[in-house]
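Suppose you are handed a protein chain with no further information: no name, no annotation, nothing but its sequence. What can you learn? This example shows the usual starting point.
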Amino acid sequence: MEKRASGVLMHISSLPGEFGIGTFGKEAYRFVDFLEETEQTYWQILPLTTTSYGDSPYQSFSAVAGNTHFIDFELLEEAGFLEKADYQHVDFGQDPEKVDYARIFTVRRPILEKAVAAFLAQEDAELLLAIFEKEAGWLQDFAEFMAIKEHFGNKALQEWDDKAAVRREENVLDDYRQKLRAAIDYHKVTQYFFSQQWAALKTYANDKGIKIIGDMPIYVSADSVEVWTMPELFKVNSDKEPLCVAGCPADEFSADGQLWGNPIYAWDKHEETNFTWWVYRIREGFKLYDLLRIDHFKGFSDYWEIRGDYETANDGEWKPGPGRALFDAVKANLGDDLPIIAENLGYIDERAKQLLEDTAFPGMKILEFGLLDTRGKSTDIPHHYIPNTIAYTGTHDNEVINGWYENLTPEQQVYTDIYTRRQADEPIAQAMLRLLYGSVSKIAISCMQDLLDKSADCRMNVPNTLGNNWQWRMLADDLTDDKKAFLAEITSIYNRRNTNNQKKDGNDEN
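A reasonable first move is to predict its three-dimensional structure. Written in structure tokens, the prediction is:
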């Protein structure tokens, strides 16, 4: 029987700390220590890629480049690239429980520029960058894209003043390479810093038996280096403007549907190359993470294509996706037993169910969804779970448990209390987590807000809205001994203890 396990969902940005946003520094290492102490096996995070309009990690300038906001200044000081005076008196934001993206975008850049200058002054800087660029492959294109984008006032690709740069005319690009050399070097070096710091943190986690579950959005942004350099892979015109965009029709989050705005893939072109770009993208994902959660898995069976003249996201139609052929190609190149989690939430029809069965990837179960149906018929309620699933109370797109419970009808609250066997005066979040960890799903993941018993205003994201999302941060003293003890207890009771720790104490039973 496959080992049962558990973990915690907590994005890097939500870690506590002094720099306005969570980083790869000491608080990240302390979080790994907490996971080891409570015998968890997994740390699940959101995409590590750059954030752009709306601050969403699901709208990135690159499918693979890292978010430089996560670079830790203390680690740069230890490496000799900064002095404490460079950052210790900087105002990174007044509210320690929220990320002020506008402020950190402004105040972090000059500090990183000092670190970049110090790095480039080293004798071996060019050699180190050359090695990194060869390993990364994508670095030069990304650095050029970001430098030119900044040159045009950070406008989206489609709005650049020089259409020759949009079209990547080589003589024009050569001019920009010369004129913007300092900015290009900045983006190369900061990606190097990101890579080095993340690799060290991941190694620390792995050495303690903690595996990282990463997140891969299905789509890329229209304002991205991929659309700039590989427009043939997307349904865009000669100016790289999307001819149609991605989203989904009306759902529980919005009567008008969700308008994501990402360009739709030209799937016929991907098929002609035997999905080479997807093989590359997933391979890059496995360089960063131990397991890869693929967002909106249904989009590979069939996807919602919204017309260019849309008024709402409902102005679209379902189109067939690449289906099993894509994952057959990926498995042929990367191996059959891939550690992939399929985000199979939302409208899941027979085509989507068949694709999940064909790939044999574990799907997701959301406890909050399951308890809405007081008849007990939802596929998201634990008595309908199967072992090959990953169970969550909710995800970054759902309410925290306390907010969710407050919005239930009286009938749903009574049903939830009975189903979870909630004890008198027991926090509803604890009752839900007990139920989750006791399920048959091979992996159970707790959202950090729920473990900390946080209120409704600590929600990470409200889909189909802009502003006030992706901001929540925990405080260092939020994680009390009693909360650690509760997590360790349910992990032990429901046989989800970290295999690494089980081997240490001689208990390696299933």
